[in-house]
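1st attempt posting a full record on here, be nice pls
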Amino acid sequence: MTTTVEYIRYRIPSDGRKDFEDAYRRAAESLAAAPECIDYELAHCQEEPDRYILRIRWTSVEDHLEGFGRGEHFPAFLSAIRPYVKAIEEMQHYVLTDVAGPGKAAGQEQP
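the predicted structure (as tokens):
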């Protein structure tokens, strides 16, 4: 099985951002508990503040769709984010290539 990276792109109006981030804090509990999930992060766009990207690394696309999607953690995840499903602009799975590596600033970044 190949590690899969899922990217979900959202467009959230400014008056909904706090609720959106709070919903993903709740949904993150399900991701953290799911054995199929390697890690996740939600990023907010600086240039276009109404855009967000969620990145989730799964053990495989099959584990995501079959394991998580039909497993015990999915209902709580979906319940938390359900109001934002219509705000999804893209939801795709990607396989990493061998083009990767640290930049000069690696290890120096501040959270």
